[in-house]
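Archive transcription. Copying these from loose printouts into the bound notebook so they stop getting lost. Printout 1 of 2:
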Amino acid sequence: MVTDPIADLLNRIRNAAQRGHDAVVVPASKMKGEILRILKEEGFIGPFEKSDAGGHPAFKIELRYVEQGRPVIAGTARISRPGRRVYVGKQDVPKTRGGLGVTIVSTSKGVMTERECRRAGLGGEVLCSVW
């Protein structure tokens, strides 16, 4: 059993990318699906698809690399954890690396990036940052 599924997702992606794998399989959930959708839209990962791994729903994620096999994802940070939730108002939504990364926020209107939050005037729970 995993106590923090979002941190597990980020670690599996980062570890697989550092090892040079083409794809990685992670257990599926709605929240993970939304996070993966944002990472794909922002260009951090390739396409992903839902499948069954050992009878359980899972996502197969294709990883992306830049020149000389360097992974596109240089780093990840889990902001709000099960032991310490982090909420921000619409005026306090953080940027990641001066706008070079993406911060993923769970709002009342769904999971979105920090840029979408500012545009919509929403705050929420800051899930993670990817750069």
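Printout 2 of 2:
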Amino acid sequence: MSITQRLRVPPGLKVLVTGGAAGIGAAIAEGFLEAGARVYVCDIDAQALDGFRRRHPAALGAVADVGREEAAAQAVHEAVRAMDGLDVLVNNAGIAGPTGGIDALATPDWERTVGTNLNSQFYFLRHAVPHLKRSAHSPHIVAMSSVAGRLGYPFRTPYAATKWAVVGLMKSLAAELGPEGVRVNAVLPGVVAGPRMDRVIAARAQALGLDEAAMRQQYLDRISLRRMVSAEDIAAMVLFLSTPAAANVTGQAISVDGNVEYL
């Protein structure tokens, strides 16, 4: 197989993307569909999911609250049934969580962030790994972390705590599942342009008493390339990790962030 052939996603690859109806998840799902993969998307937002499936009739999917194990189990079951197996799990679902000092955070907000960003990854792993072990196509797990999973993030402690935990989960699973041929990597997006980042910037500006434009510039000044990344940048890395070219890439926390120097 030539190098260029190794860089192609194998056609017919069976992929499950959580939180896949909008944002980074949608870009990932769209990339796999363009590459000829079979894709099952789950998302808590029924309207967004309907819109995604209208734009991409080949996509499969269902509404699921990833923070509930029974919903995760059902999503995995339906995906495996619909695609007759599973080769790639992209644990993408997540929320920004609250912004504020640790002494001002509400316990329900902390618990919701942990439930969506961390517990959901465990739920999907628990039910998907047995199917991945049976895959003959270099099975792979992508754990979506964040640049906040390698740097401290003042006033965003619930989010950062979950994203650091995701990296630890990935590192442990790479060692655990490697002997069975299952690869596990984490992708760490940086400052991703889009509505979600706009909301984060606005909330942090308010928490720090800054002008929103000044807050946005602070984020850019902390990036070596002085620019945000796109959802498509993240999707491209996820697709690469699912090609034969990445067959020996596992246990890695890979930043796609223009080199964020600090948060």
